[in-house]
Amino acid sequence: MPGRRKQPGSDADALAGLVESLAVLLDAGLTPRSAWQASAADGVHPIAVAVVRSAQLQTSCAQALLEEADTDEVLAIAAAWQVAEQSGAPLGHALRTVAETLREVAEAERETDVALSGPRATARLVSWLPLAGAAMSVALGADLVRAVASAPGLIAVGGGALLMLCGRLWMRSLVKRALVRSAMAGSAEELIAIGLAGGASAGAALDASRRATAAVGLPPLDDRAAQRVLRLAASAGAPAAELLTAAARQQRRVARADARRAATTLGVRLMLPLGACVLPSFLLLAVAPLVLSLLSSTTAVFR
Which of 15, 123, 208, 259 has its CA 20 to 30 A from that of 177? Predict the structure, then answer.
Protein backbone atom coordinates (compact mmCIF):
# COMPACT_ATOMS: atom_id res chain seq x y z
CA MET A 1 0.00 0.00 0.00
CA PRO A 2 1.51 3.36 -1.00
CA GLY A 3 2.62 5.52 1.91
CA ARG A 4 2.50 2.67 4.40
CA ARG A 5 5.17 2.89 7.09
CA LYS A 6 7.91 0.32 6.75
CA GLN A 7 7.90 -2.20 9.56
CA PRO A 8 10.84 -1.84 11.97
CA GLY A 9 13.50 -4.48 11.42
CA SER A 10 12.17 -5.47 7.99
CA ASP A 11 15.29 -4.33 6.13
CA ALA A 12 17.67 -6.13 8.49
CA ASP A 13 15.52 -9.28 8.40
CA ALA A 14 15.42 -9.29 4.59
CA LEU A 15 19.17 -8.80 4.42
CA ALA A 16 19.71 -11.60 6.94
CA GLY A 17 17.57 -13.87 4.77
CA LEU A 18 19.79 -13.10 1.77
CA VAL A 19 22.97 -13.75 3.73
CA GLU A 20 21.64 -17.05 5.08
CA SER A 21 20.66 -18.14 1.56
CA LEU A 22 24.15 -17.32 0.30
CA ALA A 23 25.70 -19.33 3.15
CA VAL A 24 23.60 -22.40 2.33
CA LEU A 25 24.38 -22.15 -1.39
CA LEU A 26 28.09 -21.73 -0.76
CA ASP A 27 28.15 -24.71 1.61
CA ALA A 28 26.37 -26.71 -1.09
CA GLY A 29 29.36 -26.19 -3.38
CA LEU A 30 28.29 -23.24 -5.54
CA THR A 31 30.83 -20.60 -6.42
CA PRO A 32 30.27 -17.11 -5.01
CA ARG A 33 29.12 -15.80 -8.40
CA SER A 34 26.69 -18.68 -8.84
CA ALA A 35 25.36 -18.21 -5.31
CA TRP A 36 24.72 -14.52 -5.95
CA GLN A 37 23.05 -15.28 -9.28
CA ALA A 38 20.77 -17.88 -7.69
CA SER A 39 19.83 -15.46 -4.89
CA ALA A 40 19.15 -12.70 -7.41
CA ALA A 41 16.97 -14.99 -9.54
CA ASP A 42 14.99 -16.02 -6.46
CA GLY A 43 14.39 -12.37 -5.49
CA VAL A 44 15.61 -12.80 -1.93
CA HIS A 45 16.81 -9.18 -1.70
CA PRO A 46 17.23 -6.32 -4.24
CA ILE A 47 20.92 -5.94 -3.38
CA ALA A 48 21.56 -9.37 -4.90
CA VAL A 49 20.45 -8.14 -8.33
CA ALA A 50 22.71 -5.10 -8.02
CA VAL A 51 25.69 -7.25 -6.98
CA VAL A 52 25.19 -9.66 -9.90
CA ARG A 53 25.03 -6.72 -12.30
CA SER A 54 28.14 -5.14 -10.79
CA ALA A 55 30.01 -8.47 -10.67
CA GLN A 56 30.11 -8.48 -14.48
CA LEU A 57 32.49 -5.51 -14.30
CA GLN A 58 34.41 -6.42 -11.13
CA THR A 59 37.11 -8.99 -10.50
CA SER A 60 35.39 -10.47 -7.42
CA CYS A 61 32.04 -10.65 -5.73
CA ALA A 62 33.53 -8.95 -2.67
CA GLN A 63 34.40 -5.91 -4.79
CA ALA A 64 30.96 -5.96 -6.43
CA LEU A 65 29.30 -6.13 -3.03
CA LEU A 66 31.37 -3.19 -1.84
CA GLU A 67 30.51 -1.25 -5.00
CA GLU A 68 26.77 -1.67 -4.40
CA ALA A 69 26.75 -1.29 -0.60
CA ASP A 70 24.43 1.52 0.48
CA THR A 71 23.98 0.87 4.22
CA ASP A 72 26.22 0.05 7.16
CA GLU A 73 24.66 -3.43 7.33
CA VAL A 74 25.69 -4.23 3.74
CA LEU A 75 29.15 -2.77 4.41
CA ALA A 76 29.42 -5.10 7.41
CA ILE A 77 28.70 -8.05 5.10
CA ALA A 78 31.41 -6.81 2.73
CA ALA A 79 33.88 -6.51 5.61
CA ALA A 80 33.15 -10.07 6.81
CA TRP A 81 33.50 -11.34 3.23
CA GLN A 82 36.91 -9.68 2.89
CA VAL A 83 38.16 -11.05 6.22
CA ALA A 84 37.04 -14.54 5.22
CA GLU A 85 38.80 -14.31 1.86
CA GLN A 86 42.02 -12.95 3.37
CA SER A 87 42.17 -15.50 6.19
CA GLY A 88 40.83 -18.47 4.27
CA ALA A 89 37.83 -18.88 6.57
CA PRO A 90 34.76 -20.64 5.14
CA LEU A 91 32.50 -18.04 3.57
CA GLY A 92 29.41 -19.90 4.73
CA HIS A 93 30.51 -19.67 8.36
CA ALA A 94 31.33 -15.97 7.99
CA LEU A 95 27.98 -15.19 6.42
CA ARG A 96 26.04 -17.11 9.08
CA THR A 97 27.82 -15.02 11.71
CA VAL A 98 26.72 -11.81 9.99
CA ALA A 99 23.18 -13.14 9.53
CA GLU A 100 22.88 -13.83 13.26
CA THR A 101 23.97 -10.26 13.98
CA LEU A 102 21.45 -8.87 11.49
CA ARG A 103 18.64 -10.91 13.06
CA GLU A 104 19.46 -9.42 16.45
CA VAL A 105 19.60 -5.92 14.92
CA ALA A 106 16.11 -6.46 13.50
CA GLU A 107 14.81 -7.70 16.85
CA ALA A 108 16.34 -4.68 18.61
CA GLU A 109 14.63 -2.34 16.12
CA ARG A 110 11.26 -3.98 16.79
CA GLU A 111 11.70 -3.81 20.55
CA THR A 112 12.69 -0.15 20.36
CA ASP A 113 9.72 0.68 18.14
CA VAL A 114 7.31 -0.97 20.59
CA ALA A 115 8.85 0.89 23.53
CA LEU A 116 8.70 4.18 21.62
CA SER A 117 5.14 3.81 20.36
CA GLY A 118 3.57 5.27 23.51
CA PRO A 119 5.85 8.33 23.93
CA ARG A 120 5.77 8.99 20.17
CA ALA A 121 1.96 8.99 20.10
CA THR A 122 1.90 11.22 23.18
CA ALA A 123 4.27 13.69 21.53
CA ARG A 124 2.10 13.90 18.41
CA LEU A 125 -1.09 14.37 20.45
CA VAL A 126 0.30 16.89 22.91
CA SER A 127 1.94 19.00 20.19
CA TRP A 128 -1.53 19.86 18.81
CA LEU A 129 -2.92 20.78 22.23
CA PRO A 130 -2.46 24.57 21.79
CA LEU A 131 -4.37 24.60 18.49
CA ALA A 132 -7.14 22.51 20.04
CA GLY A 133 -7.27 25.00 22.89
CA ALA A 134 -7.51 27.91 20.46
CA ALA A 135 -10.41 26.20 18.67
CA MET A 136 -12.11 25.60 22.00
CA SER A 137 -11.62 29.26 22.90
CA VAL A 138 -13.32 30.32 19.66
CA ALA A 139 -16.17 27.91 20.36
CA LEU A 140 -16.64 29.56 23.75
CA GLY A 141 -17.03 32.95 22.10
CA ALA A 142 -13.53 34.41 21.98
CA ASP A 143 -12.98 36.83 19.09
CA LEU A 144 -9.49 35.94 17.91
CA VAL A 145 -9.53 38.54 15.16
CA ARG A 146 -10.25 41.36 17.59
CA ALA A 147 -7.75 39.94 20.06
CA VAL A 148 -4.99 39.84 17.47
CA ALA A 149 -5.83 43.39 16.41
CA SER A 150 -4.70 44.64 19.81
CA ALA A 151 -1.06 44.75 20.89
CA PRO A 152 -1.49 42.38 23.88
CA GLY A 153 -3.46 39.94 21.72
CA LEU A 154 -0.90 40.04 18.94
CA ILE A 155 1.90 39.35 21.42
CA ALA A 156 -0.06 36.49 23.02
CA VAL A 157 -1.02 34.78 19.76
CA GLY A 158 2.40 35.31 18.15
CA GLY A 159 4.24 34.09 21.23
CA GLY A 160 1.91 31.12 21.54
CA ALA A 161 2.43 30.12 17.91
CA LEU A 162 6.22 30.43 18.30
CA LEU A 163 6.21 28.35 21.48
CA MET A 164 4.03 25.70 19.84
CA LEU A 165 6.46 25.43 16.92
CA CYS A 166 9.45 25.23 19.27
CA GLY A 167 7.71 22.54 21.31
CA ARG A 168 6.92 20.46 18.24
CA LEU A 169 10.50 20.70 16.96
CA TRP A 170 11.91 19.92 20.41
CA MET A 171 9.74 16.82 20.85
CA ARG A 172 10.48 15.65 17.30
CA SER A 173 14.21 16.01 18.01
CA LEU A 174 13.91 13.95 21.20
CA VAL A 175 12.04 11.18 19.37
CA LYS A 176 14.58 11.09 16.53
CA ARG A 177 17.44 10.95 19.02
CA ALA A 178 15.83 7.95 20.70
CA LEU A 179 15.54 6.24 17.30
CA VAL A 180 19.21 6.69 16.36
CA ARG A 181 20.97 3.34 16.03
CA SER A 182 24.64 2.88 16.77
CA ALA A 183 26.95 0.66 14.79
CA MET A 184 26.27 -3.07 15.03
CA ALA A 185 27.47 -4.11 18.46
CA GLY A 186 30.09 -6.84 18.61
CA SER A 187 31.27 -6.31 15.02
CA ALA A 188 34.95 -6.22 15.97
CA GLU A 189 34.70 -9.48 17.89
CA GLU A 190 32.80 -11.20 15.08
CA LEU A 191 35.29 -10.10 12.40
CA ILE A 192 38.25 -11.29 14.47
CA ALA A 193 36.49 -14.60 15.15
CA ILE A 194 36.00 -15.05 11.38
CA GLY A 195 39.72 -14.49 10.86
CA LEU A 196 40.55 -17.05 13.55
CA ALA A 197 38.22 -19.55 11.87
CA GLY A 198 40.51 -19.39 8.84
CA GLY A 199 43.51 -20.41 10.89
CA ALA A 200 45.02 -16.95 11.28
CA SER A 201 46.83 -15.99 14.45
CA ALA A 202 45.20 -13.59 16.88
CA GLY A 203 47.36 -10.69 15.70
CA ALA A 204 46.75 -11.47 12.03
CA ALA A 205 42.99 -11.76 12.57
CA LEU A 206 42.97 -8.45 14.42
CA ASP A 207 44.89 -6.75 11.59
CA ALA A 208 42.62 -8.33 8.98
CA SER A 209 39.50 -6.99 10.72
CA ARG A 210 41.00 -3.50 10.85
CA ARG A 211 42.03 -3.57 7.19
CA ALA A 212 38.64 -4.85 6.07
CA THR A 213 36.80 -2.20 8.09
CA ALA A 214 38.93 0.55 6.58
CA ALA A 215 38.62 -0.91 3.07
CA VAL A 216 34.83 -0.89 3.08
CA GLY A 217 34.61 2.61 4.53
CA LEU A 218 33.19 1.81 7.95
CA PRO A 219 34.29 3.88 10.97
CA PRO A 220 37.16 2.28 12.91
CA LEU A 221 35.80 -0.36 15.25
CA ASP A 222 36.46 -0.19 18.97
CA ASP A 223 38.38 -3.44 19.40
CA ARG A 224 39.73 -2.82 22.91
CA ALA A 225 37.27 -5.31 24.40
CA ALA A 226 38.23 -7.82 21.72
CA GLN A 227 41.92 -7.38 22.57
CA ARG A 228 41.17 -8.11 26.22
CA VAL A 229 39.37 -11.29 25.19
CA LEU A 230 42.34 -12.31 23.03
CA ARG A 231 44.74 -11.75 25.96
CA LEU A 232 42.48 -13.80 28.24
CA ALA A 233 42.30 -16.63 25.71
CA ALA A 234 46.09 -16.61 25.27
CA SER A 235 46.78 -16.68 29.01
CA ALA A 236 44.18 -19.36 29.73
CA GLY A 237 44.75 -21.45 26.61
CA ALA A 238 41.05 -21.22 25.78
CA PRO A 239 39.52 -21.05 22.28
CA ALA A 240 39.59 -17.35 21.41
CA ALA A 241 36.89 -17.62 18.73
CA GLU A 242 34.29 -18.93 21.17
CA LEU A 243 35.14 -16.27 23.73
CA LEU A 244 34.88 -13.56 21.06
CA THR A 245 31.51 -14.84 19.88
CA ALA A 246 30.21 -14.88 23.45
CA ALA A 247 31.52 -11.34 24.00
CA ALA A 248 29.83 -10.14 20.79
CA ARG A 249 26.49 -11.60 21.88
CA GLN A 250 26.82 -9.93 25.27
CA GLN A 251 27.53 -6.57 23.62
CA ARG A 252 24.41 -6.93 21.48
CA ARG A 253 22.33 -7.75 24.56
CA VAL A 254 23.67 -4.63 26.27
CA ALA A 255 22.95 -2.53 23.18
CA ARG A 256 19.35 -3.78 23.11
CA ALA A 257 18.93 -2.98 26.80
CA ASP A 258 20.34 0.52 26.22
CA ALA A 259 17.90 1.09 23.35
CA ARG A 260 14.96 0.00 25.51
CA ARG A 261 16.18 2.25 28.32
CA ALA A 262 16.43 5.24 25.97
CA ALA A 263 12.91 4.58 24.72
CA THR A 264 11.58 4.29 28.26
CA THR A 265 13.17 7.56 29.42
CA LEU A 266 11.79 9.39 26.39
CA GLY A 267 8.42 9.74 28.13
CA VAL A 268 10.14 11.60 30.97
CA ARG A 269 12.21 13.76 28.61
CA LEU A 270 9.06 14.84 26.78
CA MET A 271 7.93 16.58 29.98
CA LEU A 272 10.56 19.27 29.33
CA PRO A 273 9.08 20.64 26.07
CA LEU A 274 5.61 20.05 27.48
CA GLY A 275 6.23 22.29 30.48
CA ALA A 276 8.48 24.83 28.77
CA CYS A 277 6.68 25.25 25.45
CA VAL A 278 3.39 23.40 24.99
CA LEU A 279 1.56 24.46 28.16
CA PRO A 280 2.59 28.15 27.90
CA SER A 281 1.55 28.02 24.26
CA PHE A 282 -1.82 26.63 25.29
CA LEU A 283 -2.30 29.49 27.75
CA LEU A 284 -1.32 32.09 25.17
CA LEU A 285 -3.41 30.66 22.32
CA ALA A 286 -6.45 29.46 24.23
CA VAL A 287 -6.78 31.30 27.52
CA ALA A 288 -5.30 34.72 26.68
CA PRO A 289 -7.59 35.47 23.67
CA LEU A 290 -10.62 34.40 25.70
CA VAL A 291 -9.64 36.69 28.59
CA LEU A 292 -8.88 39.59 26.23
CA SER A 293 -12.21 39.08 24.46
CA LEU A 294 -14.08 39.12 27.79
CA LEU A 295 -12.21 42.23 28.92
CA SER A 296 -12.99 43.91 25.62
CA SER A 297 -16.67 43.09 25.94
CA THR A 298 -16.77 44.31 29.55
CA THR A 299 -15.07 47.57 28.63
CA ALA A 300 -17.54 48.12 25.79
CA VAL A 301 -20.50 47.62 28.18
CA PHE A 302 -19.31 50.25 30.66
CA ARG A 303 -18.62 52.89 28.02
Answer: 15
